[in-house]
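Bumping with the actual sequence this time:
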Amino acid sequence: MKMEDNLTRQVDEVEALSSIYSGLWNVEDEANRVYSMKVEEGSNEVVLFVTLPLEYPSASPPIYQLSAPWLKGPERQDMCGQLEEVYLENVGEPVLFQWIEKLRCILQKKCEQLNDESSNLAASSSLCEVRSAESEDCHMEIPLITHGDIITDRKSVFQGHVAAVVTVDQVRLVLSQLYENKKIANATHNIYAYRIYKGDTKTFLQDCEDDGETHAGGRLLHLLQILDIKDAVVVVSRWYGGILLGPDRFRHINNAARQVLEYAGHVKQAEGASAGSRQIKKKR
């Protein structure tokens, strides 16, 4: 592979990481392609410094260094070993996103070992607000949640979730219940939109959230409007696989949403769609 191809792939990867980890991904020396990323979970943090050689990603790994005062001896060796395993499993492909998420996973496990009662450490500040709202509404029953099938493209994974809701409080309860699932809480993006029909005024109460995937929430809400969905909240989880999908990501988000809406009976069942969706229900 030509060096120009490597540089193009490096630029694409850096742009994606800058978008996903806004404020945490830093350019240390653009001319020499030196970057840093702070990974923080609970009271532990690690700063990953990387230099991208001309041969990366086609024929060489990034040059890296881990900075953390608490990281010593065998623990450092184990962390480095896990990063190197990730590279060996993905030779020839960009690995920085996988490295960052591997570090996050290691720190999460460390926090769980120190405190068995620790809450989900990967949830964002917005998740904390949702859980706060849940505590106020703990007497309410959480609506039934239907989960759609997995859609995979170039290592990115998409999955839709839907629940029938008639109040914004129920929307918050559904989001909180979903985030209790560690895999969903750790998704790169959890995009959602809801529409609630107000019979007294014959209007819709509706809103959406991009969760870092620019314009995705608005597109998801537009899909609900086109399908004339009433009294439902739809969440699409995306786990970024390290390869840019371009506009295809919006197609997958919409397909995941439509699929789970059909499964749950909010729109006409698609021909040949599976009826074996998974459901969870929990009372407060």
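The tokens above came from a reply further down the thread. The helical segments are 3-20, 73-89, 96-114, 125-136, 168-179, 182-185, 216-226, 248-263.
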